[in-house]
Design brief:
This protein has 144 residues and is an alpha+beta fold. It has helices at 15-26, 33-52, 58-65, and strands at residues 99-102, 104-108, 111-115, 123-127, 137-139. The protein contains three helices and five strands; from the N terminus they run H-H-H-E-E-E-E-E. The protein has a three-stranded antiparallel sheet with strand order 1-4-5, with no helix packed on it. A two-stranded antiparallel sheet has the order 2-3. The longest helix has 20 residues, at 33-52. It starts with 14 loop residues before the first helix and ends in a 5-residue tail after the last strand.
């Protein structure tokens, strides 16, 4: 399976996932896919507010977010380039990222188990120009 964000089961667990579980536990919310997406959206909104400055508006928040070329929610997501993310990559191939990344899990005995990544490098990336996908690179987006 390929989660749309870093799987909770990847070890070591990144700080962003630890924080999600910590705050969800504080308010009695069970963490799942929707919780994680809500956390990511809130984090991006917070990023936009900070970037927009003290005299913020919706337009300033959106304008700031649309300048980000490598948004990862502290490693929870593969990088998003908001300067290109609104462009249809089918019609405009230049809008595609140089690499496509994913992290993989496999169901074993009813549990998700990380697959294919490396310790501290759970994201498996393939170059856009590698038609055979024989040359993956492994990475983490924490701190990038």
């Amino acid at each position: 399976m390929i989660p749309q964000f870093l799987a909770f089961e990847q070890t070591p667990q990144i700080q962003e996932i630890k924080d999600l579980f910590k705050y969800a536990d504080k308010i009695g919310v069970k963490v799942g896919e929707f919780t994680a997406v809500g956390w990511q959206i809130a984090s991006e909104f917070y990023t936009g507010l900070r970037g927009a400055g003290p005299e913020f508006s919706q337009a300033k928040v959106v304008n700031y977010l649309n300048t980000l070329t490598h948004y990862t929610d502290n490693g929870f997501l593969q990088p998003l380039d908001w300067t290109k993310a609104h462009i249809d990559p089918i019609k405009n191939p230049d809008a595609r990222a140089a690499k496509e990344c994913a992290n993989f899990v496999q169901v074993q005995n009813g549990k998700f188990v990380p697959k294919f990544g490396q310790p501290d490098k759970p994201w498996v990336c393939f170059g856009r120009d590698d038609p055979t996908v024989d040359h993956p690179t492994y990475t983490s987006f924490v701190g990038t």
